[in-house]
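::Encoded backbone::
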Amino acid sequence: MATIQVSCRYCTSEQVIKNGSNKHDGHQRYRCQTCKRSFQLQYTYNAYLPAIKETIVQMAMNGSGIRDTARVLNIDTGTV
């Protein structure tokens, strides 16, 4: 059996415990004991990834519209 070293995506602490699973797709959820935030390692939809959220903000600051951002990132305009 292989073990995976999981670190918090928010504070990079390694004091992480399992915290159930996502009810829709069954992906494992984790909870950081340092910052008390929960997260997943895998997401079903790209819009949930923290990197996509940062990209949306950067594109908005550079003058890209909602439809242009949605088309480039392949997500829905309502998500943007």
Notes: Helices lie at 50-61, 66-73. Strands lie at 16-21, 28-32, 38-40.
